[in-house]
Amino acid sequence: MPQKFDVVVIGAGIIGLAAAYKLLQKKSGLQVAVLEKEGQIASHQTGRNSGVIHQGIYYKPGSLKAENCVRGAEELIRFCDTQGVLYRKCGKVIVAKSEDELPRLQELYDRGRANGVPGLKLIGPVELKEIEPHTVGLQALHSPHTAVVNFSSVAHALAKEIERKGGAIFLRSKVKQIDRAFGGFDITTNQETISAEKVINCGGLWADRIAGKAGVDNIDRIVPFRGEYYELTPHRRYLVRGLVYPVASPELPFLGVHLSKTLDGSVEAGPNAALALSRSGYSRMSVNLKDAWDALSYPGLWRCCRKNFRAGAKETFRSFSKRLFFKDLKRFIPELELKDLVYKGSGVRAQLVTKSGALADDFVIEKGEGIVHVLNAPSPAASASLSIGTYLTENL
């Protein structure tokens, strides 16, 4: 007989773990299992990002991102305090370098205020120099409460709490099939079949395929975008005190190449956003034939490419050119030199692309009978994870 659970969560990234944690917090004695296809938790997007706890500046008021990011960031800080997870409030500046960026910076300020982001302030060049002495710009938006954390550490703290509350985490358990059964679902993995009354699909880069296994037809497709990171050499880390961001393009759901001082004092630069041909393609030459076919055979991707040709071409060229990467950073920190950048690694972002060619800008969470699918949860999902976890439990 298959093992039986009240709820099975698919995916042990930070969203899946937060959902399981919230379920167990909501109802004592609930039987909850988390299935993870890798040999460890937080292997993909959770463990490969900038580590920034976003405050909710960028997102359209009333959107799921806006509603969950502000609330989620506050809850995440409290969770870190309770669990002893290290974080650092270092502050963030979003810097306008040209006159045409000033209206967009004002729009970000207005959005942040509407979303309830604490402490936001528009500042001039003099005040910018006080906060980031080596950064130059016409104007900047200062978010003093923005923090950095290691999201893998958060994920492990969540996993510890899940197991302490009686939940189970099954590693190396890849979902092969999801069938409707009397009173719920039968979930077949590469190891066994598990029975569940309800299911939450937090499969990240593979969430669309898992939804397909559950019988969801004609859904939009996840396309992987690789983001590369450089870091400053140790003797040049003094050039950045906190977080330095450009004014993001309003047409794309990416924040642009930025500089982030991490918990250990190193300074990361990145990420860019180039099309990847593998959903776990952490090098430029990584190709997975199934993933490549899924992306390149999808009409929505080609429509997206036509709509965003110039931006896409720039990201692709920058992926192969350290000099282009450096050029974008030097706009903000003129003292920076090419030799100051050392390649660090990359992550892959799961980006839902609609059939019309639009890059989904908000979280996309679809509810079925007894099952919920998280189909688009890129940044700021890690920052908002605990709030998203609550949202999922309320909509299951």
Please describe what this structure looks like:
It is built from eleven helices and 20 strands. With 396 residues, the protein is α+β, with helices and mostly antiparallel strands. The strands form three sheets. Strands 5, 6, 7, 13, 14, 15, 16, 17 and 18 form a nine-stranded mixed sheet that branches. Strands 1, 2, 9, 10, 11, 12, 19 and 20 form an eight-stranded mixed sheet that branches. The longest helix has 20 residues, at 64-83.
Query: What's the main sheet like?
Result: 9 strands, mixed
Percent helix, as a range, is 25-40%
Top CATH class of the largest domain: Alpha Beta
Q: Which percent band covers the strand fraction?
A: 25-35%
* Overall 3D shape: globular
Compute the average pLDDT.
Answer: 94
Query: What is the fold named in CATH at topology level of the largest domain?
Result: FAD/NAD(P)-binding domain
Tally of separate helices: 11
Q: Please give the number of β-strands.
A: 20
CATH superfamily of the largest domain: FAD/NAD(P)-binding domain
Structural domain count: 3
Describe how the helices and strands are arranged.
Blueprint: E1 3-10, H1 14-26, E2 32-35, E3 52-53, H2 64-83, E4 87-89, E5 92-96, H3 102-115, E6 121-123, H4 125-131, E7 139-143, E8 147-149, H5 151-164, E9 168-170, E10 175-181, E11 184-189, E12 193-201, H6 207-213, E13 221-232, E14 243-246, E15 258-261, E16 267-270, E17 274-275, H7 289-296, H8 299-307, H9 309-320, H10 322-330, E18 341-353, E19 364-368, E20 371-376, H11 385-394
Parallel strand pairs: 1-2, 1-12, 2-9, 5-14, 12-20
Antiparallel strand pairs: 3-8, 4-8, 5-7, 6-7, 10-11, 11-12, 13-16, 13-17, 13-18, 14-15, 15-16, 19-20
